[in-house]
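note to self — DONT lose this again. spent like an hour looking for the file last time. sequence + predicted structure for the chain T wanted, 413 res
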Amino acid sequence: MNRLRCSKRLLPLALTALLSACATTPPLHRESRPAPAAPPAVAATVTPPDDDAANAPTPDTGNVWDRLRGSFAVANCDADPAVLSWARRYTRNPQRFEQEAREALPKLAYVQQVAAEHGVPGEFALLPWIESGYRPLAGRYNRPAGMWQIMPATAAAMGLRVDHRYDARLDVQAAADAVMKLLRQYHDEFHDWRIADYAYNAGEFRARKLVEQHGLPPEAPVIPRWPVHDITREHLTKLLAMACVVREPERFHVSLPTLTPSQHLVSVPLPHSMPLARAADRAGMPLDQLKDLNAAFRNDIADTSVAAYLMMPVSHARQFRDALLDQAASASADRLPDTTFATGIGATDTDAAAAKPAPRAAEHARTHRVKPGESLWQIAHRYAVNVAELQRWNHLQGQHIKPGQLLKVSAPR
């Protein structure tokens, strides 16, 4: 697996503008940028809990493969025999290839949109395929990490936070945006997408030195005949080979999977920190799947102090948003004093006292209104507490609860 190395002379990464995608992109070696077109929204978000919009916005759900092909910068599959050879190696087991494509497709589609935002050719949306298979590989010590396989020093230069709580190299949204900015910067310097790939794999300093010594490579062969490490040359060859398969899947006897609108990934804003287990429960999705999409959180806590969003499929994002809305509405209703029995003629002093607002501490206590069919264990799991705590806070002798009952789900303050 190839590593991304950091050059000490890495140029500043902040770009003043984001470039849009185009239907056809120039060859890899040319310095012109893709013609601007309206890009699809990348970080589609779910509205905050206090917004009463009916549905979360969704990303562009057109055919992912058509968009990808339309943004490719390579001429064809026959540009180099090594490219064709690697394309055949990738697809020698069609069933396995198709399965890997199905698993990778949601992330691939998201990355393609980010690439389009930055005017980066579609080939580079396939980089995680050859780096990690789109898996959020954790880095140990001074090792590369994430689906982009970024080194810690490079992450620091790219502005990606890496510490014991959060590793932005594993953040789908943050890492994709940082990598595409970096690739755009490389092209702006070298005016050749092939050299941008060499810089990504071998380092910017090495790529600059090669250009100074040999000048820009000619259009043919597509794999420059430069004195580079075999790994660096193979990196570009593999990238173009994956693009070749996407361009002509029938040539390699494979079928590319489809992505339904509900499977597209979106970034969902978080109103507050919460355990990933609770977020998965509210989103109605397997915890392992949510962790895979949000592997940057190292302690299984979605911490809004480092990243105030979660990545999840559109269908689960809507359920998650609805759960937040229900919780906000329930909390608001629970804070209202119940005065219905103390407003009639002849109400006693005791009734009036009971109708007064609760003390300030009680107003802010976290509570949950029991719904039909809910158990004490389910409620404990939802709020990341244990059953014994719920029993103690609510003076329960057993586990019997009834619909409509109001339970404290946090320690009294």
